Amino acid sequence: MSEASHQATVMVVDDTPANLTMLEEILRGAGYRVVTAAGGRQALEQAPRLAPDLILLDLLMPEMDGIELCRLLKAAPALRAVPVMFISGLDDVASKLCAFEEGAVDYVSRPFAAEELLARVRTQLALRAARRALERQQHDLEAAVGQRTEQLLNAQRIARIGAWAIDLERDRIEWIGDTHRMFGLPDRSPVSFTESIRRVHPQDRPRVEQAWRDALAGESPEYAVTYRVVADGKVSWIDERAELQRDATGRPLRALGTVQDVSERKAYEAALRQQQERLEVALEAANAGAWEWDITDDRIRASERWARMLGYAAGEVGELTKGRWEALAHPDDQHAVRRALQQYLAGAAPAFEVEHRLRNGRGEWTWVRSVGRTVKRDAQGQASTIAGIDVDISQQKEQEAQLAYVASHDELTGLPNRMAFAHRLAEAMQQSHRTGQPLAVAYMDLDGLAEFNERHGQPCGDRLIAELASRLVACCGAGEVARVGGDEFTCILQARAPGEDLEDQLEQLMRDIASPVVIDGEVFSATASIGAAVLPPQGGIDAEQLLRQADQAMYQSKLSGKNRYTFFDAERDEITREYRAQVEDIRRGLDANEFELHYQPKVNMRFGTVLGFEALVRWRHPGRGLLRPAEFIPLLEEHPLAIALGERGIALALEQLAAWNDSGLETSVSINVTSLQLHDPDFLGRLQRRLEAHPSVRRNQLEIEVVETGAMRDIAHVSALMERLRDLGVGAALDDFGTGFSSLTFLKRLAAGTIKIDQSFVCDLLDDQEHAVIVDSICRLAESFSRKVIAEGVETEVHGRLLLELGCELGQGYAIARPMPAAEVPEWMRGWTPPASWRESTMLPRERVPELFAELGHRAWRNALRSYLEGRRKSLPELDPRACRLGEWLSNARVVSMLGHREEFRRARELHEQCHAGAERAATCARVGRMEDSQAALDKTIDTSNQVLDLLKALRKRP
Ligand code: C2E
Ligand code: MG
Ligand code: MG
Fold first, then answer.
1. CA 325 to CA 338: how far, in whole Å?
2. CA 666 → CA 613, 616, 725, 726, distances in Å?
3. 617: Cβ below 6 Å to ligand 1?
4. Relative to the CA of 597, which ligand 1 atom is closest?
């Protein structure tokens, strides 16, 4: 605020009202604010509140004179600075001096001129204003200095900085700011150098003193020392610097110094050092060494440790230039190292990381893992230096290699395993494609190793395998042979000599395997089933596929009797694959209980008694419906699954028998077994256990059907088995008899109580009189060996009748019943009776059997005629009525002499001739395309033929 804008306040104190009024007028007229007081007390009371800028006092006042009042005003702190002017009638020097002594600034004697008074008032007010401005300025200045000082001290405190000054003459150190605190001093009082040094850590004192002496002597250009201070039992680090001021002669006078508390930095440095040390220890322990790679000029600075890790003497390596590094790094790995760097720099990898080999001090290769990161960048932010470590991973690599070896080799033989072999084979295949040299792979499976182990013990088996392995290696070369399974080997075959072909090599392999092996003085020999697959020259196949092909070919060798080799055949492969899928499906079906038994009765056709049932397996296939055995049993002929399926059949049959027994239905069941089942060593044992599990089933309620051809293959075994079955009380039947060309001796050796005539002979009875002869002779044979004989395939009533006439009373076939689910059996049994013709028919006397054959011959003839005319047969049947079977019989001299007198016989001869004539007619018409006439002639002929058959039947019934 400027003085002009300030309306000054003037206080007037006078006991004379007229004086007061006059002064008030003069002053107010000049623009001042005027306050009046009539006496000293009033003035003292009002002045502090009104804060006048000037006080005019009358000297003589009754209550309290002006001098007294002035003294009191000057004594009041708030009013002390307010100028006091006296206005008085007294003009003596003593009064004036007295007034000035009490602090008055002016003295105006009455009377006075108003202008003079105003001039004096103005002067005093101006002085007052100037003083106040000065005061304010001083105050501001002081505040600013205080503030700055505080800021500085704060800054010093924050930065832990302090300062001191030393007067060298007087040896006094003055502390600036709070510096004394750093030295643990209670206040700022100056101390001597000796006193201050006492605060320094005893270990650091000599150093500090030396530095100070050097500085004083001018020996070092500056005084700078870092030391520890012990204050209040606490140690802190101080960084101290000072500058000395000297006189003209160079004598030091003063010094100004700064101190900084660097304890934190020191702690950090110590921690860093510790970390560094720990890192060193870690690097040592990890067998690692550090490096720094300046990638702008491709130089590597490697640490001592790094050099030591690689077995170099200290200083032997030093800085690596590009060329020097290339001499150290493995040539095969350098590319990988560069690539890893590129990837890291391109941001594709979080760190530079690569495993590579370095040449070590012994001239060998050391595997290291390098890991590094950028530590310096150029102005563009591009990495310029990478720092990292190399860790010696040789041991790890060795272990890895060992593990890889173990994982890729067979323990027993030391040969590569399948995985390793596949690798090797792939290599060999590539080479073969390059060189054009033919290549094949052989897959060998030792025959019967499981049995060998069982008989001679696993250790012996192992030695056999080891011996064979070394022979294979000797034959094919190390690395070319692998053990790919317990008893499976593979090898790569390549012509070793010109002209040598694959077959020679395979023969050689077979010989090597087969030549005797001596183990603990005992001589053994082995064979193998081998499959070979040749690499197609056009390629298009990988190692695994080639190996699989050889495996499949091996399987084929197994199937076709073992101890042989087979080449892979793509066409057959397709079949094999399908075959395997089907076998798998059967396995699945077994698991899903999709197999069931149907039952077909075996009966006495004449008396209608039911002998029992044959159990016939059916597969209730989820996708293909109800399947008959022909659709799956043959698939399992050589497959172990046949045993499982057969066992399931036996189990189901026994369960069914037990169930029927429980329900009061007494019957027997025959069940078919395959030859694989028969050769299963535990077949009988299992059967026995099953029977024991069903105590309600009597042993003679069960019969085992063995197919004749199967039994013939190993007659000794089957015959022993049948005897054991007989001992057990279980029946045995020879099934499909007649198909296996059994000799008499064969039948004699088998303890089969029942013979089942193969259905093919029975079905064809009507078409082929030869079959009738066979059926007849089987019946005779069975009779002479006291075996029961059952005819299978009794398809029609006629079949049954003919069989009965031939003396075969037991039958099974569609004319009796089709195979049925077990649930239908009880009802069928209740309702079934044989046809009347069966009940009535009798067995022909032996001498009349030729009549029957003659009749069958005629039936066969007319069937052949029909087939011919219907285009199902190429050749015409015999047209000469005397040359056919019936014609021969009808014209046989002995027959004519015996029956020629009989009307039926003569009539039959006549009609028979008509038949032949009709046949010729029908054939002729057919040849010229007169089909209707041909048909009419055939119909007529059949008609006539039926009459012939009736006549013959009647003849046979003669007494
Ligand atoms: P198989 O033991 O000779 O059985 C008789 C076969 O002839 C049955 O065929 C039966 O249905 C059929 N058959 C019965 N009557 C007639 C007929 O009047 N005319 C014709 N044409 N055929 C008739 P299926 O059931 O198809 O069985 C065929 C073969 O499968 C059986 O011949 C047997 O060797 C075998 N088989 C059936 N079930 C089993 C079984 O559970 N295990 C074994 N291992 N083989 C079985
Ligand atoms: Mg059978
Ligand atoms: Mg049969």
1. 12
2. 11, 19, 21, 21
3. yes
4. 41
**138, pLDDT greater than 90:** yes
Rounded Cα gap, residues 39 and 60, in angstroms: 10
Closest C-alpha to ligand 1, atom 5? 792
With beta carbons less than 8 A apart as the criterion, state whether 778 and 798 touch.
no
Q: Is the minimum distance from the CB of 535 to ligand 1 under 6 angstroms?
A: no
C-beta separation of 700 from 666 below 8 A? no
The C-alpha atoms of residue 19 and residue 111 are separated, in whole angstroms, by 11
Q: Is the CB of 738 under 6 A from ligand 1?
A: no
Q: Domains of the chain (ranges plus CATH)?
A: 3-137 (3.40.50.2300), 159-268 (3.30.450.20), 286-392 (3.30.450.20), 400-569 (3.30.70.270), 579-843 (3.20.20.450), 847-956 (no CATH)
**What's the Cα-to-Cα distance from 441 to each of 165, 520, 535, rounded to whole Å?**
98, 33, 8
Question: Atom 44, ligand 1: which residue's CA is nearest?
Answer: 673
Whole-prediction pTM = 0.50
| DSSP notation for 457-481 | -HHHHHHHHHHHHHHHHHHH-TTSE
Kind of pairing between the strands at 669-673 and 702-707: parallel
pLDDT at 5 over 60: no
> What is the C-alpha to C-alpha distance for residues 806 and 771, in angstroms, rounded to an integer?
12
Q: Is residue 938 pLDDT above 80, yes or no?
A: yes
Categorize the per-residue pLDDT at 318 as very low, low, confident or very high, splitting at 50, 70 and 90: confident
618 ligand 1 Cβ < 6 A: no
With a CB cutoff of 8 Å and minimum separation 6, the contacts of 882 are 888, 891
Question: Is residue 957 in contact with ligand 1, taking CB distance under 6 Å?
Answer: no
Is the distance from the beta carbon of residue 649 to the nearest atom of ligand 1 less than 6 Å? yes
Residue with the smallest CA separation from ligand 1 atom 42 is: 672
Residues 6+ apart with CB under 8 A from 628: 616, 618
Question: Above 70 in pLDDT, residue 1?
Answer: no
For the Cβ of 14 lying below 6 angstroms from any atom of ligand 1, the answer is no
Residue 472: CB within 6 Å of ligand 1? no
**Residue 608 beta carbon below 6 angstroms from any ligand 1 atom:** no
With residues binned 3-state (H G I as helix, E B as strand, rest as coil), the percentages for the chain, rounded to 5, are 50, 20, 30
846: pLDDT strictly greater than 50? yes
Q: Is 616 in the pocket of ligand 1 (CB under 6 A)?
A: yes
Ligand 1, atom 38: closest residue by C-alpha: 616
Q: How far apart are CA 20 and CA 514, in angstroms?
A: 157
Minimal-distance CA residue to ligand 1 atom 34 = 672
CA distance 738 to 789: 12
The closest residue, in CA terms, to atom 27 on ligand 1 is 629
pLDDT tens-place string over residues 660-715: 999 999 999 999 998 888 888 889 999 999 999 999 999 999 999 998 777 776 77
**Which residue's alpha carbon is at the smallest distance from atom 14 of ligand 1?**
813
Ligand 1 proximity of 813 Cβ (cutoff 6 Å): yes
| Percent of the chain surpassing pLDDT 90 | 55
345 Cα–ligand 3 center, Å: 82
Residue 814 beta carbon below 6 angstroms from any ligand 1 atom:
yes
Among 613, 759, 803, name the best residue to mutate to test ligand 1's pocket (greatest count of ligand atoms within 8 A of Cβ).
759
Q: Which residues contact 710 (CB under 8 A, 6 or more apart)?
A: 674, 675, 678, 718
Q: What is the DSSP string of 152-204?
A: HHHHHHHTTEEEEEEETTTTEEEEETTHHHHTT-SS---B-HHHHHTTB-TTT
Q: Give the pLDDT mean for 382-405.
A: 88
Q: What's the DSSP call for residue 381?
A: S
Asked whether the beta carbons of 407 and 423 are under 8 A apart, the reply is no
pLDDT digits (tens, 9 = 90+) for 630-663: 999 988 877 889 999 999 999 999 999 999 999 9
Cα(597) to centroid of ligand 1, in Å?
11
